[in-house]
TrEMBL record:
Organismal lineage: Eukaryota, Metazoa, Ecdysozoa, Arthropoda, Hexapoda
Superkingdom assignment: Eukaryota
InterPro entries membership: DNA/RNA_pol_sf, HTH_animal, RT_dom
A UniProt-annotated Pfam family: HTH_animal
Protein name: Reverse transcriptase domain-containing protein
PROSITE patterns found in the cross-reference section: RT_POL
SUPFAM superfamilies, per the entry: DNA/RNA polymerases
Organism the protein comes from: Aedes albopictus (Asian tiger mosquito)
Annotated ranges, domain Reverse transcriptase: 1-147
Length: 419
């Protein structure tokens, strides 16, 4: 927190929050980094957690404070200092390298630096190779580490063509922009080598290089239209997605769609962290079977499933108490319970009980606005539900064909499994 306090004069220019509240919020974000592994809970005890959105900002803040502190103790001027998060590039005398490194490493025992010295007038820094010329000027070349695999998004992958072309364009831009005093043939060779390793066809590479040479990109000022556009993702399904995008551009020019892959590395390789138990999950669609008939209730909840089921159990217990007190279906309290959920309505009408200990999670979404649509879809595709007809009234008829296909596939799969 000392780093925030020491640089508060700079930070406060960008916020209306006072220092005390800002420190409290920052501390809360840092101290809430925890996870479970093999049933054991762990919490970050030093520094900030990888993946925490605040980590890069805090790291940059710490480095700024470190630089201010260390450079004041060095007894000679440093003409050049460049910083990118924790990567530093300094121009210092050769006989002072060890002195400067030790000075930096004395700042904090858990923040230690290593040194890479220029060799033959060349020094790699980030994605650049800095080349010191005899007249002491610096030229730059595009650079990849010796351990770099050279892998980009492969041209033969199932991603959208737009994404593949943008990957190629970005590489061409980096090579040509980062390289100064490099002839066109050398830059073209680098581009071809990198992209051909990832199966990009030569005609496409040449076309993109020529297009950039003939029409160098210029930074266009933002227009008022940029603020009125709506951006949405759309699942990438071969040529179908491109056709949908083309139709949307024609009919809804204010909507910009971006293809999104559902089959990601993360979906294939399981995470190492412990999965939440079913009853601890939130933002889910769930199903509860009836103990007395083949029906079931489909519901949704944005809170923990355990809490939602507890709410069902509480209202069912309330219904049981009213019945034991001699109340019938015409009683006002029982009528109010009937209006709460279709589950209670089924219990009151048929005098049935639901198996609250056999709740099944059908679906989930991290976007709460998707839950209502998912719930309606599962109600329509689940046989013998007790849900009310009004639960699916808001579902667009556009989903009917897709749901029918999904239901047919599910029924066929189930029949084959039974056989």
């Amino acid at each position: 927190m000392q780093n925030v306090i020491s640089r508060w004069d700079e930070i406060k220019e960008n916020t209306n929050i006072n220092l005390d509240l800002f420190l409290e919020m920052t501390e809360f974000c840092i101290n809430c980094s925890y996870f479970q592994f093999k049933g054991q809970s762990y919490q970050q005890v030093f520094g900030t957690a990888m993946g925490n959105p605040l980590s890069p900002i805090i790291a940059d803040l710490v480095m700024e404070t470190l630089l201010d502190s260390v450079t004041k103790t060095i007894k000679f001027p440093i003409p050049v200092i460049k910083k990118h998060v924790d990567d530093l590039m300094l121009a210092i005398p050769k006989d002072e390298i060890e002195t400067v490194k030790n000075t930096f490493n004395q700042y904090h025992q858990k923040i230690q630096f290593t040194v890479e010295v220029e060799k033959d007038g060349k020094l790699p820094y980030l994605d650049l190779l800095l080349v010191r010329k005899p007249d002491q000027t610096i030229k730059t070349e595009w650079y990849a580490k010796p351990i770099a695999s050279g892998r980009f998004l492969n041209y033969l992958s199932a991603h959208s063509m737009t994404l593949k072309i943008n990957v190629a364009k970005n590489l061409i831009k980096r090579v040509t922009t980062f390289s100064t005093n490099v002839d066109e043939a050398t830059a073209k060779k680098i581009i071809h080598t990198q992209l051909r390793q990832n199966d990009y066809p030569k005609p496409l590479i040449n076309r993109l290089i020529n297009r950039r040479r003939e029409n160098p990109p210029a930074a266009a000022p933002p227009t008022e239209d940029d603020n009125t556009k709506t951006f949405r993702s759309i699942v990438n399904i071969g040529s179908l997605t491109h056709k949908i995008q083309r139709t949307l551009r024609s009919d809804y020019p204010e909507v910009v769609t971006c293809p999104q892959q559902r089959k990601t590395v993360r979906s294939i390789i399981p995470g190492v962290k412990d999965k939440l138990e079913e009853n601890q999950r939130s933002n889910v669609i769930y199903k509860i079977p009836c103990a007395d008939c083949g029906s079931s209730y489909v519901g949704m909840t944005s809170c923990r499933l355990k809490d939602r089921v507890s709410g069902h159990r509480s209202t069912i217990n309330k219904l049981t108490e009213l019945r034991e007190a001699g109340k019938d279906e015409t009683d006002q309290e029982i009528m109010r319970l009937r209006e709460k959920t279709a589950l209670l309505d089924h219990c009151i009408t048929n005098n049935h009980q639901f198996l609250l200990d056999r709740v099944e999670v059908l679906d989930s979404s991290h976007k709460k606005q998707n839950l209502a649509i998912l719930e309606s879809c599962h109600i329509l595709n689940t046989q013998h539900t007790v849900n009310k007809r009004t639960d699916t009234d808001n579902l667009s008829g556009t989903y009917a064909g897709v749901l029918h296909t999904v239901k047919t596939i599910q029924h066929t799969t189930h029949r084959r499994t039974v056989e």
